């Protein structure tokens, strides 16, 4: 589902990614762990199309996002980010929109989906996430775990092939770590979703991952552990 080949990225004189190579199989949950400043977030931002690498290639679902550091053809570049869903560390929900509106906004604006179709899809997703009774609630009325689920729902509404999580437990009470892990495993098992997670939380990583990789100083280590 994902191939990263020789990815490099610098910010000024600081080289953040130093020839990163990564492959993730369809339906696999891969977790990348490592210290702050090691390049994990930059790698995730490159894969999700938010940051342009200097060198290297990213191939998602057999389509190039970047080839030898250059953007793909315009048609492919428009398609590929829709194959990738990103759940931000702090959820980034729209505070002035209720749950249903948060989930339907992108499909309507970006994909041109009709309002009724978008609502029906959102309600289906909320049912899957156990939030069927929260569609009219606003973010300030939700717990951290519920906000996390809405953020996942917003990503799912775009029908991604790969979903990426940036520190999914960092803003949550440690007591719901296992709950979040079980939900992500449910995405993989029931939805066939391919998942990439970056985290500092080794307990969470051990619970959720099919495979754990470590990253430090811009280098993704080849050693890995299958769970």
TrEMBL record:
Name of protein: Polar amino acid ABC transporter ATPase
GO cellular component: plasma membrane
Family the UniProt entry places it in: Belongs to the ABC transporter superfamily.
Topology within the bilayer: Peripheral membrane protein
Superkingdom to which the source organism belongs: Bacteria
Main localisation: membrane
Subcellular localization: Cell membrane
Organism encoding this protein: Clostridium sulfidigenes
InterPro entries from the UniProt entry: AAA+_ATPase, ABC_ATPase_HisP-typ, ABC_transporter-like_ATP-bd, ABC_transporter-like_CS, MetN_ABC_transporter-like, P-loop_NTPase
Keyword terms, alphabetized: Amino-acid transport, ATP-binding, Cell membrane, Membrane, Nucleotide-binding, Transport
Pfam families attached to this UniProt entry: ABC_tran
Chain ranges of the ABC transporter domain: 2-227
Entry GO MF terms: ABC-type amino acid transporter activity; ATP binding; ATP hydrolysis activity
Gene3D superfamilies assigned to the protein according to its UniProt record, in alphabetical order: P-loop containing nucleotide triphosphate hydrolases
């Amino acid at each position: 589902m994902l191939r990263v080949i020789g990815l490099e990225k610098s910010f000024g004189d600081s080289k953040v990614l130093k020839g990163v190579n990564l492959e993730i199989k369809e339906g696999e949950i891969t977790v990348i762990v490592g210290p702050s400043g090691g390049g994990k977030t930059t790698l995730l931002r490159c894969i999700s199309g938010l940051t342009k690498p200097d060198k290297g290639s990213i191939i998602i679902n057999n389509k190039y996002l970047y080839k030898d550091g250059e953007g793909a053809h315009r048609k492919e570049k428009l398609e590929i980010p829709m194959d990738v869903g990103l759940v931000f560390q702090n959820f980034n929900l729209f505070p002035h929109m209720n749950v249903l509106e948060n989930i339907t906004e992108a499909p309507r604006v970006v994909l041109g989906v009709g309002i009724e179709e978008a609502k029906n899809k959102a309600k289906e997703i909320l049912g899957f996430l156990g939030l069927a009774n929260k569609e009219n609630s606003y973010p300030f009325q939700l717990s951290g775990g519920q906000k996390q689920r809405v953020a996942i729902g917003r990503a799912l509404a775009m029908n991604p092939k790969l979903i990426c999580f940036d520190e999914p437990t960092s803003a949550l009470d440690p007591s719901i770590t296992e709950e979040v892990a079980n939900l992500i495993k449910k995405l993989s098992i029931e939805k066939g979703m391919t998942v990439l997670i970056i985290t500092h939380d080794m307990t969470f990583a051990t619970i959720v991952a099919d495979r754990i990789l470590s990253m430090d100083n811009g280098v993704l280590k080849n050693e890995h552990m299958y769970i």
